[in-house]
Amino acid sequence: MDGKMLARLGAVVFVGVAITAAVIEFTRRPEPSELRPLARERSDTGDIRQRLRHCRDLGEAATRNPACLDIWAENRDRFLKQGARASGAPSAPTTLWPPTPSEDPIAKETEAAIPPEPARPPVSPDERVR
Hints:
Number of strands: 0
Order of helices and strands: HHHH
């Protein structure tokens, strides 16, 4: 047998195996997949869901609403199960905005450590880059 005849025989065997595998795959019946819901509805969260939806509908005003801040904290605690908190862990912030420098002692120290940027000399119209 010469090389050409051997290559042709190998190609025919390969095609035959590929066709057999394709026929077997197409005739196989798919196994029924077990459908499970991704999430379950809980009956005890109806009131919480309604209050969360109300806060969602308020939009940006909800960030200043104490009732919304309380329900978000309750939902976060329920979701993360933060009942057993470490003793040195800080509590959740009561507002979304950081304290002003007059209220924050760390900000006062930082302001004193960073010198203000020096004023730049005015640029003449000839020196401007377009």
